[in-house]
Every structure is written in C-alpha cells, then in structure tokens.
Amino acid sequence: MFIVRILAVLTLLCACCAQAAEPESFPVVLRGKTLTVSAESDRATLAAQLSGALAGEEPSVLTVERTQYDFIAVQGEGPVTLLVDFDSKGRWIEIVIESSLKQQNPVAQELVSWIAANAGQGRKSGKVTSWTHGGLAFRFREVKNAGEDSVYGITVSRK
After folding, report:
1. Structural contact between residues 115 and 131, judged by C-beta atoms closer than 8 angstroms
2. Alpha carbon distance 30, 7 (integer Å)
3. Which residue among 94, 95, 97, 131 is buried most deeply as judged by most CB within 10 Å?
4. Neighbours of 144 (CB within 10 A)
C-alpha cells in the first residue's frame, strides 16, 4: 500500500511538472504557412514571420505599439484583420484575428480548432468561448446576423 501511495505522489508530481513545462506557444496559419507564436515572440520576430507569410501585403498600421494587416484570406470574401499590440519592451500583449464572417476567416477557424483540441471545449458565456492554455488566454467570439457588428474572431492575450 505504501508503494502505491508513493507511485501516486510521483505520478502527480510528474503531471504537475509537465503542466508547468507546457510551452506557451500556439500556431497561426496564414496562407498555408504555420507561424509559431510563443510568449517570448517579440516585435522583430513577429514582423519577420508576418511579412514572410503575407508576402506582397503591406501592414495597414505599423507603429511601435501595433502591427496590423488587413488581408484577403479567401478569394471572393471580405478581409481578415490580424493585429498585434506590443508593450513598451516590444513583447506582444494581445493578438486579434477577426473578420465579419466565419467563411472569411480560416485563420481564426484553424486556431479555434487547435485550442479546442489542446485545451478542451472552453467556457462558454453568451457568444464568447474562453480558454486558458500554456499561460495564455484565448477568447473566441462569433456574432452572426448583426450587420456591421457581425464578427468571427479570436483574441489571444497573456494571462
């Protein structure tokens, strides 16, 4: 019985260590290219990844505090907005991937699928589903049939 308890405690400790070592990163798929965004990603790293994946696109906003691209992800559909806000040290603090309709935004669709597969179904509150995973907070919103206020998007931020 004593050995079973020791094994149970060791298993619990290993599980806690594995949870603590969970990488704080997530994939963003842009035009077939997968970018890995980690908690350590900074302005220069993200700028290089985004410009490579969105070759031919110019940022809509490019300031010290924000990089934003508005681009067509699906031909014949409306634009997707991808924006990254940075703190004074150049670390990202929030990433938003948003459009008006689901069919316009395969980028958010793939990230929502990834977070659901890796962190479960999340907590649903109205039209918002939230997850925490790897030290990050994910917030998915879908508002349908609201005219200009319709939205399909996901926001990732540091917890």
Report:
1. yes
2. 45
3. 97
4. 11
